[in-house]
Amino acid sequence: MGNEESVFFSRVLTELTLSFHIIYATIGVGVPLMIMIAQWVGIKKNDEHYILLARRWARGFVITVAVGVVTGTAIGMQLSLLWPNFMELAGQVIALPLFMETFAFFFEAIFLGIYLYTWDRFDNQKKHLLLLVPVALGASFSAVFITIVNAFMNAPQGFDLVDGELVNIQPLVAMFNPAMPTKVAHVVITAYMTSAFILAAIAAFRLLKGSDHVYHKKALFLTMKLGLIFSIGAAIIGDFSGKYLAEYQPEKLAAAEWHFETEGEAPLMLYGILDGQEVKYTITIPYALSILAHSDPTAEVIGLNDFPEDEIPPLYIHYLFDTMVTIGVLMIMVSGLYWLGRHMRWRFIHSRWYRWLIVAGGPLTVIAIEAGWWYAEVGRQPWILRDIMKVPEAATTSGHVDTMLYLFATLYLILGVGSVVVLRRMFRNNPIEREIADREAEVREGTRKGGDH
Ligand code: HEM
């Protein structure tokens, strides 16, 4: 296999691994916070339904964590095997957050284990809830540290390259690079948003399938409220991400917006097609690109014609950007209307079509996560380390990457199907009605035994 082929297969394998891993990683970051909030509401309101929500979500969460760990390990391994030249350089500068990510994960895993095995062991439920704090923190900090590594790839700093030698290495300067604040914030908040809407979709689906249980209604109400808060947060931070790009990676923003000429009063182009440099059939929002880039409707936005041709990212990222933003805005509207509808007692929010819309929100936000990552990664092309190392320079020359690709694709298929089957069985075999009845019986038994003594 020639170098071109090994670069090609390395890229496909990395894309496949990341695209698969990100689904489980996103759930892994967001769901612990949802569990914590549900249990906290349950304790505060003395409402067993919310406590049960926390219990059931925690059980499902364990399965997704397991898949996240396997695929996360695959990424670590593939980084070294497929991109050895990148790891040799970057490893010396940015290894610190990579290690810290592992520690954050251990922190999370240890407390998750204790949390799961100590249900009903505490007389004071608040102490049990406290165990979730390190779980949620560990999960979010895993995302923070690993996103810092990705931010470094977009805005490398904290070292000098003299005759190919790395000197003056400053790991903390490398970590606190200009891409870090917006990337970290956007990744964490969109993980919370996605987890809220996936859990909302499950609750809405149960209601559509005939359950009229108040447990699912409470689950829907809580998750839609959280979804609304986090989706508004995602859009606000997304706006800051746009401003970061305009300043530090203008080619990524210009490619997403098919913005060729550097000019002021730049409009935002939604959808459409590209014919050479002519943009057709788009929805044009006047001044919006200048506002997204610089908070000023007249500000100048750098166009693609100012860059060498071989440093312009693929222009299909326009569709990825549009997909992400469209879903973000749609979910603000769906959850905002739900929240308003609850207050105004609008009946349509309980209608079947509206519930189906909420069900669709689960997979749609996962698509937004995928689109966001593909946009961020493809938009960095041709660089693996911006302005320093191009992707082909970083890749392995091994002749066996294609075999690895087939093997890993099979593994992900087994893990994907396996995790869905296990999760479905887990909840089907223990429906909420039965779990509530069992818990009531346990409480009665406990009271009776207490009375006998
Ligand atoms: C609603 C308005 C939104 C705006 C204006 C926005 C903007 C952006 C921008 C400019 C980037 C590129 C950042 C970079 O490369 O440094 C980005 C990346 C990303 N977006 Fe969004 N986004 C929005 C909504 C969403 C939603 C709803 C999701 C998912 C639920 C999402 C998920 C992501 C992800 C995972 C990335 C890659 C990580 C990163 O680079 O920050 N975004 N977004």
Automatic annotation (TrEMBL):
One of its GO terms (biological process) is aerobic electron transport chain. The chain crosses the membrane at residues 20-41, 61-83, 89-117, 129-153, 184-207, 219-238, 316-341, 353-376, 404-423. Pfam families: Cyt_bd_oxida_I. It is found in: Cell membrane. The keyword Lyase does not apply. Keywords: Cell membrane, Electron transport, Heme, Iron, Membrane, Metal-binding, Transmembrane, Transmembrane helix, Transport. Belongs to the cytochrome ubiquinol oxidase subunit 1 family. This is Cytochrome D ubiquinol oxidase subunit I. It comes from Bhargavaea cecembensis. The lineage of its organism: Bacteria, Bacillati, Bacillota, Bacilli, Bacillales.
